[in-house]
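An example makes the point: we print one protein in full, the chain in one-letter code, the fold tokenised, without further comment:
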Amino acid sequence: MSNSNLFLYIGKPIKNEYGRIIGKVASFALTPSGKFDAVFVEFGDGQFTKQPMETLKFNGAEVTFISKIKNQAIILCDQIPLIWRKDQAVKDLNDKRKISPDLYQELHNSFTSVLTQLKKDAQVIADEAAIEIERCQEEISSLSYAIANLEIEHEIGKVDEENYKNAFALLQETLKRATLEKTDFELTKSKVSSVLLGDSQDITQKTKTYAEQVSVAQKLPEPPVVVYVKEIGKAGI
């Protein structure tokens, strides 16, 4: 996309990966050579921040905010097994006497240092994902409670049919998004935890499986809501 076209996104709403509007594009930061370097975003709560270009996806008229946790998790889950395999390769070369012991030790120490730092970063991501999972669960619980109360008030006649249907549809859609978001973070945390435990075999297949799981999760139907209310008849209020 040309640089001039990107400026057409100024003022456009920004949605997260689950379709929820979280803010809007305020402006862009460019390097002296004219390359787009960052995006200024005004979030829904009024907070104004500068975000790296890679955190936003511009597609047609849509602007999507990509989760930093997911992005970093994908990178780390690629890098950790790669460094691990390189360290193993160096060990094999040393065992076969294809490199000197001194060179092996130098390379091994270098890979070990990088791997240690990557694992620390991965643990931070796993902890952040756990916090997001808890947040989503709290939101799901609140939404379920709100739906239950709506059902009760509708059942006793305090909420008319039209308002009931509109409110129910809104709450169900929000609940669906919160459930999908929670599933997404659970998959991310699981993937990062597997890598931290050293489960690095067949990483390509694991990445594919993770992507397939996310794809399936995004197609989940709206979560069913069943509320049992004792039949007492319409109050007629």
About this structure: The first strand starts at residue 13 and ends at 16. The radius of gyration is 24 Å. The helical segments are 3-6, 68-95, 101-155, 161-196, 203-218. Residues 69-218 form one domain.
